[in-house]
Amino acid sequence: MYSTDEDYLEIKLYGEQNLLYAKWKRSVSSEEYRTGVRNLVRLLQEEVYYLIIDSEKLPTLVIPEQQWLLREFCPLLANTKVRKMARIGNGDVFSYLVIDNLTEQASQTYSFQLAFKHCKTMEEAMEWLQLYESRHSA
Predict the structure, then answer these.
(1) Does domain 2-120 have CATH number 3.30.750?
(2) What CA–CA distances, in Å, run from 13 to 1, 19, 35, 109?
(3) pLDDT per residue as tens digits for the range 109-133
(4) What are the tens digits of pLDDT across the range 38-57?
C-alpha cells in the first residue's frame, strides 16, 4: 500500500484491490485543490480500476475549479484504467448537481465510460465498488 498524508489531503493506494482512496481533510485554496488533484492523477497512472474521493469537507466547487477539472483532470482521467468512481459528499444537493453536471460534460467531451456514484459513507462506496467484502475479510 502506498500512502501520502498532507495537512489537507490523504491519499492511499491499495494495489492489491486496484483502489485509490483520497480524502480531503479540510476546505482548501484553489492552489491546494489543484496540487492535490495533480497528485491524485499521478497515482491513477498505476493499475487503478476503482477510485473513492471523500469530499465531505469540501465546499461546492466554484466555477473556475469546475472549468479547470474539465480542462485538466477529465482528459487525464479518460486515459486511465479507472472503471468506477465513488464520491463521498457532504449531502449538499447543489454540490451533487455540480458534480453530476461535470460528469455529464466530461463523458460527452472525452467519451469515456466511467461508472460514477454519489455516496454518503465509505461503506456505501466500498459496497458499490464491490470491494467491501474483500477489504474487511482480511
Answers:
(1) yes
(2) 6, 6, 17, 28
(3) 887 788 999 999 999 999 999 875 4
(4) 999 999 988 999 999 999 99
End-to-end, the C-alpha distance of the chain in Å comes to 14
Nearest CA among 93, 89, 96, 100 for reference residue 125: 89
| Cα atoms in the 13 Å half-sphere on the side-chain side of 69 | 21
Domain limits of the chain?
Answer: 2-120
Nearest to 53 by CA among 111, 112, 102: 102
What grid cell was written down for 79?
486515459
User: The pTM is what?
Assistant: 0.86
